[in-house]
TrEMBL record:
Residue ranges constituting the Fibronectin-III type-like domain according to the UniProt record: 322-400
The species this protein was found in: Haloquadratum walsbyi J07HQW1
Protein name: Uncharacterized protein
Coiled coil regions in record: none
Domain of life: Archaea
Amino acid sequence: MRAVSVFLAVILVIATVAGAVPVASISDAQTSEESISQVNQEGSGPILSMLGISPVDVRRSALQTTYVELGRGLAFTSTATETRIQTETTLNRIQSASTPSMRQQRLLQALSETEQRTVILRSQQRTQISAYGDENITTEQFLARLAAIDAESRALITRISRLESAADSIGGFSIPASRFETLRIELRTLTSPVRKHATDVITGTTERSRFVIQSGPQSVVIGTIIDETYVREAYRGRLRGAGIGMALNITSPTNVTTEAYPTITSLRRERTVTAPNGPIARVNVDHDRGRLVSFIDTSSARIFKEIQHRPLTQTSTRRSLSAVKDGLRLTAHPTYPGGPVRFQLNSTATEQSVDAPLTLGPPSGESTIVGETGADGSLWTLAPDGTYQVTAIDRSSVVLVSVDPSFPPLIYGTVGNSNSTRGNSTETNANGSNNDIRISTPG
């Protein structure tokens, strides 16, 4: 078994995209007179609950292949270097102050500036989510800008730790630890392993990768596969309370997560809580099928951000679908729109696994090569947000299976009203390759 990232190699954006070349319309691929049979089989277990955007509120979604980009990669490196230099300069100014009183003043100023920058980054994220939903920026630009916010937020988290150490070193002076912790957690709401992975791809640290993106009002969901693990970030700004920065008396954060994720709670091995009395509490849950990180706004007593890690080998799938044609059987084991999906390709004559390329695309549209099934005939990849078709081609044999995945059990339903309807389209990026498969919802 192999995930898509194993199959795909790193290439430069300025070069011609190989391996993502559009193939013929899937409706033209089935030319044999042999009939196709669809077989439903039971899934492998219950799908775990998650934070997400209600289907009626999804304004735009895409399945995007991201590559190393020299321009953006250099910009990321430059920004990270600049932030580190600013941190060192700030710490030097604090340490070089002639009196303890001046050191205290400079430290408080540095902390205040970091808090102000955090507010700006949060505002930038809202702006980018809105711009993407309004189709004013491309999927590629949106992902890169979220990655840039992630990179700067991580650098500021490091700065906060340095400032906290500097405060501890000043005799007779103290800043409440809760102030540092609150700022750290606020910055962590602007980061995720998915965004960090996008940064690694753009800067050339790792090979190219596929990302699934959904956006809604003040909301974004991003998923990818990293080292045979499906990693998903969900952020819903509308679930944050109006009293930002004001902690209210709520039930224990662990009770909030227990009510939201009963199945995950039943599978729990370890749980840790950070800042339970602050404006934002973070609850980490390690369980038998992965890991959950949830952020709770204590003024609304609701989870507004989560990060889920699901090892592919422990991922439950829904009812499977099989198609048989030209001596091949292609079986899809879907989860939910935008989630991981496993495909299995076998010979109907021998039942042996077949190693062949798979293409994926919207119904009656152009499809894109997403990987090869490998020696075991199996491939994990990401599903787009909507109905799609997958085709396996082994020499002159072609088999196609259509998938219309069910929506996942979301921990919260719709927030606000929406009259949007959903439509399917395929988005082609600037270099002409159809590697961005998109289901768009008119505003």
